[in-house]
Amino acid sequence: MALLFWPAPATMVACRRCGGLRPVPRKHRAAVAAELRKIYTAPDTDAALDALASFAGTDLGRRSPQAVRAWEAAWERFIPFLGSPRPSASCSTPPTASSR
User: Fold this and answer.
1) Could you give the count of Cα atoms lying within 13 Å of 48 in the half-sphere of its Cβ?
2) What number of other Cβ atoms are within 10 A of residue 23's Cβ?
3) pLDDT of residue 84
4) Listed residue (71, 73, 87) closest to 21, CA to CA
5) How far is the first Cα of the chain from the last one, in angstroms, to the nearest whole number?
6) What's the mean per-residue pLDDT of the chain?
7) pLDDT score recorded for residue 62
8) Burial, 52: exposed, middle or buried (Cβ in 10 Å; 0-12, 13-18, 19+)?
9) DSSP 100
């Protein structure tokens, strides 16, 4: 059985992104998610804050203020993860008795 390992920062970001997308109409979710991706993939805090401000000023950001509020509410908990390595979707199998 293959297991998927995700570091804690990826889990937190996924939760924040999904929480921000929950009230967004389905037809806008892909576009909003693409804009939010710019925030959580930013190289540093300043770039992430600029991406959030940029998103908030767009038509999508004005239509989805709850997404902006979700990120602003979690900002202090989110910024420590900006320096973390990016998550990878690497699969591995658990060790077998013969490999121990």
Assistant:
1) 20
2) 11
3) 66
4) 71
5) 17
6) 74
7) 93
8) buried
9) -
The confidence score (pLDDT) of residue 13 equals 52
| C-alpha to C-alpha distance for 13 and 49, rounded to whole angstroms | 15
Q: How far is CA 36 from CA 1, 2, 28, 80, in A?
A: 33, 30, 12, 17
> Which residues neighbour 63 within 8 Å (Cβ) at sequence distance 6 or greater?
28
Residue 67 CB coordination number (10 Å):
28
| CA 75, chain centre distance (Å) | 12
Q: Rounded to 5 degrees, what angle do the CA atoms 24, 26, 28 make?
A: 70
- Looking at residues 69-98, what average pLDDT do you find? 69
> Ramachandran region of residue 93, left (φ > 0), alpha (ψ -120 to 50) or beta?
beta
Amino acid at 24: V
DSSP alpha helix (H) spans, the chain: 8-21, 26-40, 45-57, 59-63, 65-73, 75-78
